[in-house]
Amino acid sequence: MPGMRLPLGFVFRSRAKEEKAPADKAPVTDSKQSRDPQAPKGRPTPKRSEAQSQRRSVASTPTNRKEAAKHQREERRQALARQRKALAGGDERYLPARDKGPVRKFARDWVDSRLNIAEFFLPLAIVILVLSVVRVPSIQNIALLLWLVVIVLIVLDSAVSGFRLKKRLAERFPDQNRRGAVAYALMRSLQMRRLRLPKPQVKRGERP
Q: Please, are residues 152 and 118 in contact by the beta-carbon 8 Å criterion?
């Protein structure tokens, strides 16, 4: 307009100064209060041990099928290693399902505390087999007789042991599942003491 004159400073004023002005007025934050970049906003910074465990879990998460299969094989290998160690030491946490529980433990201890005829079946069978190979009729007859005697003794001893163990289990664990415990104990009695797994935890004659 011809009648109005604007000052030159208003027209040619730099906008850069206006844009910088609010930035200069921004509140100054304390630089000492640093926040972990991994911590979510509004939550406290996690401890170093927690952050490391989170990073390890993220790093161990498989990203494809090949890594997932490798991860599963490694877990199975570690589980088998723990199981072998438990079978040798009797650690209940890592024993196989068939060996877990107080009922099965009592059955194992009961068998291990006795002298079972069945545990000598393997060495006696080898002796009888060697005698039966000898081409002497009298020796072969002795081998056959020994074989019958061993079988009868094992059957009788197993029957008596099973009856006594069943009675003890009913007295000791009246409210727990005892199914299969007697058969489990009899199968253990067929093995030589030093070859039994889990390893015997009681001595002969020691009351379980």
A: no
- What per-residue confidence (pLDDT) applies to 11? 47
| Burial of 185 per CB tally in 10 Å (0-12, 13-18, 19+) | buried
- For residue 15, pLDDT beyond 70: no
Q: Does the pTM exceed 0.85? A: no
pLDDT bracket for residue 91 (50, 70, 90): confident
